[in-house]
């Protein structure tokens, strides 16, 4: 079997070359999108996006948010998160109103200095993707803050 595959790849004979050409034509084939099929695929695309966004909303609203809120000491109105933050250690999390946590967020509590380190996030604050906090005592982020991590 291995010799046949090598023969097809190297196109060692006319038969192998024919098989190679046939396999390549099958692998390169795609459904044509033209003025007849385009409306169907546009509708299919919109349906795909609708289902994807609805699924994301369901997971976020019925799973991520309640799980994260259960780990917080205080939560204000309008918490918006994309992913479930990763929390290690134990501490207190205070969230103000209108907080947006984008993407992956890491919160690490170092319990060597205090038994309950504290993270406080003020009102109207956005914390960007891949932000991590390691808290020994207290980190307080004020109100109306945009916190982004620059990737290098």
In words, what does this structure look like?
- With 152 residues, the chain is of the alpha/beta class.
- The chain folds into two domains: 1-30, no CATH class; 64-147, no CATH class.
- The protein has helices at residues 2-10, 14-28, 38-70; strands at residues 74-75, 79-81, 86-88, 92-95, 99-101, 105-109, 118-121, 125-127, 131-135, 138-141, 146-147.
- The protein starts with a helix and ends in a 5-residue tail after the last strand.
- The model has no long low-confidence stretch (mean pLDDT 92).
What's the helix and strand layout?
Blueprint: H1 2-10, H2 14-28, H3 38-70, E1 74-75, E2 79-81, E3 86-88, E4 92-95, E5 99-101, E6 105-109, E7 118-121, E8 125-127, E9 131-135, E10 138-141, E11 146-147
Parallel strand pairs: 1-4, 2-5, 3-6, 4-7, 5-8, 6-9, 7-10, 8-11
Helix pairs in contact: 1-2
- Cα end-to-end separation: 48 Å
Order of helices and strands: HHHEEEEEEEEEEE
Number of helices: 3
- The amount of helix comes to 25-40%
Q: How many domains make up the 3D coordinates? A: 2
Report the portion of residues in β strands: 25-35%
Number of strands: 11
Low-confidence stretches: none
């Amino acid at each position: 079997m291995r010799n046949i595959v090598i023969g097809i790849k190297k196109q060692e004979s006319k038969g192998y070359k024919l098989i190679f050409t046939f396999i390549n034509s099958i692998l390169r084939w795609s459904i044509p999108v033209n003025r007849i099929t385009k409306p169907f695929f546009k509708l299919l695309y919109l349906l795909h996006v609708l289902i994807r966004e609805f699924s994301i909303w369901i997971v976020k609203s019925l799973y991520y948010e309640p799980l994260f809120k259960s780990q917080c000491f205080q939560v204000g109105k309008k918490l918006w998160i994309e992913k479930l933050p990763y929390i290690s250690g134990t501490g207190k999390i205070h969230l103000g109103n209108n907080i947006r946590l984008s993407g992956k967020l890491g919160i690490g509590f170092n319990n060597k200095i205090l038994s309950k380190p504290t993270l406080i996030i003020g009102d109207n604050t956005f914390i960007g993707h891949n932000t991590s906090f390691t808290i020994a005592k207290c980190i307080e982020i004020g109100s109306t803050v945009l916190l982004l991590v620059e990737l290098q």
